[in-house]
Write a structure and sequence with these properties.
- The chain folds into two domains: 128 residues, Creatinase/prolidase N-terminal domain (Creatine Amidinohydrolase, Chain A, domain 1), CATH 3.40.350.10; 223 residues, Creatinase/methionine aminopeptidase superfamily (Creatine Amidinohydrolase, Alpha-Beta Complex), CATH 3.90.230.10.
- The chain contains nine helices and 20 strands.
- The longest helix is centred in the middle third of the chain and has 22 residues.
- The relative contact order is 0.12.
């Protein structure tokens, strides 16, 4: 177990008066142990206890030979898995449960302990994970540097006039060459009007003169994710598309410049959103300004109008305003930002000024 991270969770548990956490999220278990287990439909639970005695309940299909610094308890497919977990739980104390724990396990637990005091344990774990330590920040810097490289290589393929799916295939090869283990999310390659759909599903569309080209891409390296978006134009750009792009770029810049400890995420969102609205495109900015990122591409926490929490050192999140005019053009510009002790650090350095390719 990674002592510093575990201690932070125990401190949060004490503050919230939670006796034990039932952690089933493989990403949080990896965060605490440095070991990946993907259990599929089977039960996997790390019981974190305020007594300091922690237990990992895992199926025998996933034998662990490393010393994880936690007691290992193996179960098989014929065991009552939830009953086994409860052997290590003090049901007189509040039990924190992962927000994504499958209902088949949770309902079983409620049947066995109908008067149990339960809470959303992910509020505790997510808060700790949101504050990246220096090791994590260095991993985020490394994978983001690779992403700068990847998007530059992908941009340079545009003159080949590959369709969107072919570009995705080329991107997979680029990440492999960069020793990334794969995509952090399914890439969005969107030409022209396709880019007006913020989550366009990449297809066999080909690029045409005057098209915007959205490249929203991310890789995974050492279990940490990158994510970045750049928008280009093919051979020419209309005055309207140029205005949309410059508006989006300025919104991106204004939001990033807001980042420092103590600034509310809703105010960072407003810095981008208010400018886009002022320029007449407010109805075409249809999503939040950003999301937290780390081991998962989308972690708990966001940059949105409803989030009144404040930025704190070590938090890493995207700033990605977009303007999407149906049937015409889409533009999104995204960077990953670290909140530092006195401001911010931008993890992405690929150029953002308007580029016409070809």
């Amino acid at each position: 177990m990674k002592t510093n991270r575990t201690d932070k969770m125990l401190a949060n548990m004490q503050q919230e008066k939670v006796g034990q956490l039932l952690i089933s999220d493989p990403t949080t278990i990896f965060y605490l142990t440095g070991y990946w287990i993907h259990p599929g439909e089977r039960l996997l639970v790390l019981v974190l206890s305020d007594t300091g005695k922690h237990t990992l309940v895992v199926n025998k299909l996933f034998p662990i030979t490393e010393d994880l610094g936690v007691e290992l308890v193996y179960i098989d497919d014929t065991d009552d898995a939830v009953a086994k977990v409860l052997e290590f739980v003090d049901t007189s104390k509040t039990i924190g449960i992962d927000k994504n724990w499958p209902s088949k396990f949770l309902l079983n637990l409620l049947d066995k302990v109908p008067n149990a005091k339960l809470c959303n344990g992910s509020d505790i774990t997510d808060d700790v994970r949101a504050h990246k330590d220096e090791q994590e920040l260095d991993l985020m810097r490394e994978v983001s540097k690779d992403n700068d490289n990847a998007i530059t290589q992908l941009r340079d393929l545009v003159p080949l006039e590959l369709n969107e799916l072919e570009m995705t295939d080329r991107l997979a090869a680029i990440y492999k060459d960069l020793n990334n283990s794969g995509f952090s999310f399914e890439p969005i390659i969107a030409y022209g009007a396709n880019g007006a759909d913020p989550h366009h599903i990449t297809d066999d569309s080909t690029v045409k003169v005057g098209d915007s080209i959205i490249l929203d891409i991310g890789g995974v390296k050492n279990s940490y994710c990158s994510d970045m978006t750049r928008t280009f134009f093919y051979k020419e750009v209309s005055e309207k598309s140029r205005d949309v792009y410059e508006t989006c770029l300025e919104a991106n810049r204004r939001a990033i410049e807001m980042v420092k400890p103590g600034v509310r995420f809703c105010d960072i969102d407003a810095a981008a959103r208010d400018y886009i609205t002022e320029k007449g495109y407010g109805e075409y900015f249809t999503h939040r300004t950003g999301h937290f990122i780390g081991i998962e591409c989308h972690e708990t926490g966001d940059v949105s109008g409803s989030n009144t929490a404040v930025a704190e050192p070590g938090m890493v999140f995207s700033v990605e305003p977009g303007i999407y005019i149906p049937g015409e053009v889409g533009v999104r510009i995204e960077d990953l930002i670290i909140c530092t002790e006195d401001g911010y650090e931008n993890l992405n350095h690929a150029p953002k000024e308007l580029q016409i390719i070809g």
